[in-house]
Amino acid sequence: MKKSNIGLYFGTFNPVHIGHLAIANYLIENSNLNQIWMVVTPHNPHKKKSTLLDDYQRLNMVHLATEDYLKIKASNVEFNLPQPNYTVNTLAHLTEKYPDNEFTLIMGEDNLKSLHKWKNYQVLLDDYHIIVYPRISKGSIPADLLNHESVTRIDAPIMEISSTMIRNGIKEGKDLRYFMHHKVHEYVEEMNFYK
Fold first, then answer.
1. Which residues contact 51 (CB under 8 A, 6 or more apart)?
2. What pTM did the predictor assign?
3. Which of 70, 55, 54, 72 is nearest to 18 (CA)?
4. Three-state SS string across the chain, please?
5. 96-133 burial, b for 16+ CB within 10 Å, e for fewer?
6. How many domains does the chain have?
7. pLDDT tens digits, one per residue of 24-61
């Protein structure tokens, strides 16, 4: 039986926005992925925890944004794993828990440039496939990763929308409804988030 290929799109999603959704949608339609799990990260080792909304609020926003699209789903797999969350540990956990699935890591080009700083990054390259979407960022991709057999660079649209921009805009009283899925925008307004 052919394994189902699941793309893992990690993020703090604080909040999830149309850039995240557009990339996930593009990858589902233009790659060999059967499904994408948007993995809500409780604590990224590279971000301050104090700036984050509650884990379940962020998970709920991803759920609201994806509930009508069967091929993309919200995942809370990292909520019960030791923190801070390291991708290599999460992948080991998922591979053991779902032996009938194959897991592919989804990341922006900026993350590929700093992959050598990730915990046990060589394991990721040896054991998993990585799909990389373009992002405008400083620096260059290390030569050994540029043509690595585990890395596929995909020509997705470049999304220059950030959760930081949205949070700052809301704090300044701007109406940013078109930068988020309408259900997410309604929830953010209703809950008075980021004000």
1. 14
2. 0.93
3. 72
4. CCCEEEEEEEECCCCCCHHHHHHHHHHHHCCCCCEEEEEECCCCCCCCHHHCCCHHHHHHHHHHHHCCCCCEEEECHHHHCCCCCCHHHHHHHHHHHCCCEEEEEEEEHHHHHCHHHCCCHHHHHHHCEEEEECCCCCCCCCHHHHCCCCEEECCCCCCCCCHHHHHHHHHCCCCCHHHCCHHHHHHHHHHCCCC
5. eeeeebbbbbbbbbebbbebeebeeeeebbeebbbbbb
6. 1
7. 999 999 999 999 999 999 976 666 666 689 999 999 99
- 62: domain range? 4-191
CB of 129 closer than 8 Å to CB of 152: yes
Taking residue 65's Cβ as centre, other Cβ atoms within 10 Å add up to 27
Tokens read off for 49: 């925890």
Closest residue by Cα to residue 7 from 164, 160, 162, 156: 156
The CATH number of the domain holding residue 43 is 3.40.50.620
